[in-house]
């Protein structure tokens, strides 16, 4: 038995593959294009492990995907592959359309052909799990109830619009062709191997480098944070026990304004790696221009997955963020590798010299 994990060299995908192989001996094929966000080093500990194979390639490469499916006969696919950064989608939406929409479509087509050719037991047991985001639901007002699975889709950024389109395609392949799909919509993740273009790792890396900590607008936008390993355990649970065709929202019950997040990171660094001059890291906070179309608030109602599948997060924000900050302190070489080259160009383009 095996599973195919797409985007498995990225942040969540690599955490998922590493976790999977600590919990099970089931063979994993990782398919990843290795864009700027994908990193072979994330899976370095699996080098030589007979339970894992890495294939560099695009989910939109129908020939390659068909070959991998025929060769390995996976019982499930977990689709993490995507362009995932809202700010990049604002600067250049094209890659988001290509991977998140066209790529997901081509992947679905290849999977449909493969699934259609399976024997009846394998056909029944097969699952296509699509990993999506709470951002497809749009932005909440201060007192609105959190997003349930029934919330209507109101994506506001090119990123969330492209993810919404991919969710719709996945849904359509179930209703039209009977493909046994599962969709998960998760809130903001944080943890090890998070590329430092996203809020939490950017703040840790910039703080340690003595650089400004760029807070967009008034810093009062709210996100609902989940430790990445809790997201991985939720996906495993949905894959095991989720009802075909269903959507599960995944969240950590941790709504926090961005400024609180940045302060928490600063306080932890003050404790774990104080500045040489003895001053607090919060002195590096700098307010910068707001993101265009910036969603004000996301919040996930995760009661369905708890009620139906018995899943709950294991970490609180306090325990998860401490582990995360410590991981970045312990893994400076990883940070140095991912922040060389193209990363510098992105930072220069997006923040100027910040
Ligand atoms: P990421 O950007 O860190 O990783 C994406 C991975 O996909 C990279 O390894 C990249 O090389 C790979 N990839 C990109 N285009 C590809 C293609 N055409 N073919 C094959 N591989 C390709 O993203 P992430 O944060 O790990 O997110 C993973 C998934 O989870 C995405 O679908 C994202 O929308 C979703 N998600 C992320 C969050 C979050 O907070 N990061 C929250 C909810 C959902
Ligand atoms: P991000 O990590 O990009 O995730 P998303 O946009 O998918 O929620 O951003 C999280 C929040 O932090 C979002 O409200 C934008 C804000 N933010 C900043 O204030 N400064 C930054 O430099 C970045 C990258 C994000």
Fold and architecture overview:
This protein is of the alpha/beta class and 354 residues long. The chain has a domain at 2-194 and 227-253 and 298-314: NAD(P)-binding Rossmann-like Domain (Rossmann fold). It has 13 helices and twelve strands. The strands form three sheets. Strands 3-2-1-4-5-6-10 form a seven-stranded parallel β-sheet, sandwiched between helices. Strands 7-9-11 form a three-stranded mixed β-sheet. The radius of gyration is 20 Å and the shape is globular. The chain binds nicotinamide-adenine-dinucleotide and thymidine-5'-diphosphate (TYD). Residues 86, 188, 198-199, 202, 214-216, 221, 223, 258, 291 line the site of thymidine-5'-diphosphate.
Proportion of residues in helical segments: 40-55%
What kind of sheet is the major sheet?
A: 7 strands, parallel
Radius of gyration: 20 Å
How many helices?
13
Strand order of the largest sheet: 3-2-1-4-5-6-10
The proportion of residues in beta strands is: 15-25%
CATH fourth-tier homologous superfamily of one domain: NAD(P)-binding Rossmann-like Domain
Order of helices and strands: EHEEHEHHHEHEEHEEHEEHEHHHH
Mean pLDDT: 97
What is the CATH class name of one domain? Answer: Alpha Beta
Q: Which residues form runs of ≥5 with pLDDT under 50?
A: none
Instruction: Describe the global form.
Output: globular
| N-to-C span | 48 Å
Bound compounds:
nicotinamide-adenine-dinucleotide, thymidine-5'-diphosphate
Total beta-strand segments: 12
The structure class reads alpha/beta
Question: What name does CATH use for the topology of one domain?
Answer: Rossmann fold
CATH architecture of one domain: 3-Layer(aba) Sandwich
């Amino acid at each position: 038995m095996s599973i195919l994990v797409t985007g498995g060299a990225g942040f969540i995908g690599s955490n998922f593959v590493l976790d999977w192989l600590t919990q099970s001996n089931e063979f994993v094929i990782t398919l990843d294009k290795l864009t700027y966000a994908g990193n072979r080093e994330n899976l370095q500990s699996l080098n030589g492990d007979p339970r894992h194979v890495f294939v560099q390639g695009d989910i939109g490469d129908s020939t390659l995907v068909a070959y991998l499916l025929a060769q390995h006969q996976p019982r499930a696919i977990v689709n993490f592959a995507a362009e995932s950064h809202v700010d990049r989608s604002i600067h250049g939406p094209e890659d988001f359309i290509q991977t998140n929409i066209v790529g997901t479509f081509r992947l679905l087509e290849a999977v449909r052909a493969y699934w259609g050719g399976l024997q009846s037991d394998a056909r029944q047991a097969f699952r296509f799990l699509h990993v999506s985001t709470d951002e497809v639901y749009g932005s909440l007002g201060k007192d609105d109830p959190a997003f349930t699975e029934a919330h209507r889709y109101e994506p506001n950024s090119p990123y969330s619009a492209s993810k919404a389109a991919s969710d719709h395609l996945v849904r359509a392949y179930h209703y039209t062709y009977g493909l046994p799909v599962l969709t998960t919509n998760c809130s903001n993740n944080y943890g090890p191997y998070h590329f430092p273009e996203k809020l939490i790792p950017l703040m840790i890396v910039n703080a340690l480098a003595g650089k400004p900590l760029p807070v967009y607008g008034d810093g009062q936008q709210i996100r609902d944070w989940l430790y990445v390993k809790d997201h991985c355990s939720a996906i495993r649970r949905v894959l095991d026990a989720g009802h075909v065709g269903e959507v599960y929202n995944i969240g950590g019950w941790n709504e926090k304004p961005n400024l609180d997040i940045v302060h928490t990171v600063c306080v932890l660094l003050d404790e774990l790696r104080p500045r040489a001059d003895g001053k607090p890291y919060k002195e590096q906070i700098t307010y910068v221009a707001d993101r265009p179309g910036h969603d004000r608030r996301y919040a996930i109602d995760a009661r369905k997955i708890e009620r139906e599948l018995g899943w709950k997060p294991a970490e609180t924000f306090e325990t998860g963020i401490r582990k995360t900050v410590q991981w970045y302190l312990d893994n400076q070489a990883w940070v140095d590798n991912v922040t060389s080259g193209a990363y510098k160009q992105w930072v220069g383009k997006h923040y100027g010299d910040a």
